[in-house]
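Last lecture ended with a question: if I hand you only a sequence, what can you say about the shape of the protein? Today we answer it with a concrete record. The protein is DUF3159 domain-containing protein. Below, first the input exactly as provided, then the predicted structure, then a couple of comments.
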Amino acid sequence: MIDTSYNPTRGTEARQPATGPGAPAQNGAAKPNLLDQLGGPWGMVLSGLPVIAFVVANALVALPVAIGIALAIAVGITVVRMIRGERFSVAIGGVFGVVVAGGIALWTGSASGFFLLGIWVAFAGAVVTLASLIARRPITGVVWNLMHGGKHAWRQDRKTLRVHDIATLAATAVLAARFVVKQWLFDIDATGWLATAKIAMGTPLTALVALVVIWAFRVSTKRLVGTK
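The predicted structure:
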């Protein structure tokens, strides 16, 4: 016998919008991709402007004035980024970077000193990531585990350990390359090429490494969390 009674809840399951991390965004809002999170192409252009301005200005005016010009441009970029909706804590990072880099340049009395902080940050990062590989505790795996409560035996799963070896090695390679190239350019006092290297080896390579790390995180989550 066919049930013809009216049920107002019948079929609502099919009409309910999907929710959860894997569901499509509602109201046409797309989830920001990696490039968007790094500022997008426009953000990459903006991040390089203070460096370019510093190098150009340093060829025309005194070092303190060149630093002031770079700082003014960094402040202007911060205002633009905040108008575009970025958080203040993220947008202000470029200003702090120019302040510290400029302070080191004044302290050393050399325009190349503007790039010294980045050189040694790259060196320290390469040492830390390489040490984590040697210790068989790749740092991306350590970070992933901490993000998931620190309760997973991720090093006992061979595939998970291998993908984090790859991700951490990618980070080590980029950091080491930055240090070697920039240190050599610093030694020969090639300020213009230092600026070029900083821009070319900055956000683009960071985005590539981030893609590898995200892949390692997803593999780890699928194997150790998604199966539970």
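Comments.
1. Residues 39-109 form one domain.
2. Residues 24 and 43 are 26 Å apart (CA to CA).
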